[in-house]
Design a protein that fits this description.
Elements (H helix, E strand, L loop, with lengths): L5 H16 L5 H17 L9 H19 L10
Helix pairs in contact: 2-3
């Protein structure tokens, strides 16, 4: 009996992405869902990593990209200074 199936994980991931980008769900609820599911998954096991500057920067970039996606902000719509 196989307990873990990749296609099952893909379905759960797609459902999570759908919830995070759904405009009918409040931004506060999407933020809570993000911090409880996505952030904890990204940081899982990071206590054992030898933390380097590249790792920290990669995590920050990924987090900002996800937050922009949740809020519906695109980099192309950036206002000129």
């Amino acid at each position: 009996m196989q307990l873990w199936r990749p296609e099952f994980e893909l379905v759960k991931f797609r459902q999570l992405v759908t919830l995070l980008t759904n405009k009918d769900v409040s931004l506060i609820m999407r933020g809570r869902l993000y911090s409880s599911c996505v952030q904890s998954s990204m940081l899982h096991g990071s206590e054992t990593w030898p933390v380097r500057k590249e790792n920290v920067m990669a995590l920050q970039r990924a987090e900002m990209r996800m937050v922009r996606c949740m809020c519906g902000v695109k980099l192309k719509r950036r206002l000129p200074k």
